[in-house]
Design goal:
Elements: H1 14-27, H2 29-34, E1 37-41, E2 45-50, H3 64-86, E3 90-101, E4 109-113, H4 118-131, E5 133-138, E6 141-143, E7 149-159
Antiparallel strand pairs: 1-2, 2-4, 3-7, 4-6, 5-7, 6-7
């Protein structure tokens, strides 16, 4: 199993954001279809933007599934960037989430997901080093302001060594 580097997280530079955008385009077809683009937001968090065109419903407002996907991928991307900086080889998957839709979105939109707090990442590191799996909780929000939707989500980070196991044998719950 990989030991995770516990150094402090720093906001991604342009190269890391470019690597994230390339990864999304190459490995997550939905991100490309939605035309999602990641941007760093200094030390505050990550922003994923999407155009309304191609992501709307019959009412010409953003489709709920597009909003949910943007929120989920923003949290996933934050995990991916933390893991990349730490040298962690992990599969990152959504474990569970609760989304609240507050209002319709009639223009281009973006999800903002704060970076993990240093103590939360340290707990993730410790759990991953102990068990080869860990979870983190994130709370991205969807804009334009005020937030049009908010989400609380748990993501599982699974050791890459588990890749050969069937989906049924890969528990997303670290306590199992």
């Amino acid at each position: 199993m990989n030991a995770i580097n516990e150094r402090a997280f720093t906001a991604p530079a342009g190269e890391e954001i470019a690597a994230l955008n390339a990864y999304l385009a190459a490995h997550i077809p939905l991100a490309g279809a939605m035309r999602l683009v990641a941007e760093s937001h200094d030390m505050g968090g990550l922003i994923l933007t999407a155009p309304l065109t191609g992501n709307h419903n019959d009412k010409r407002t953003a489709f709920g599934g597009a909003l949910a996907s943007t929120l989920i991928l923003a949290g996933w991307a934050v995990c991916w960037l933390h893991a990349r900086q730490s040298g962690l080889q992990a599969d990152i998957v959504i474990r569970d989430c609760q989304i609240r839709y507050h209002r319709a979105v009639d223009r281009d939109f973006s999800a903002h997901c704060p970076w993990l707090a240093p103590d939360a990442w340290a707990r993730c590191v410790a759990a991953f080093n102990r068990r080869g799996r860990a979870t983190v909780t994130l709370e991205p929000a969807l804009f334009p302001a005020p937030p049009a939707a908010t989400m609380t989500a748990s993501y599982a980070l699974l050791a890459a060594a588990d890749r050969g196991k069937t989906d049924a044998s890969r528990s997303l719950h670290p306590s199992s």
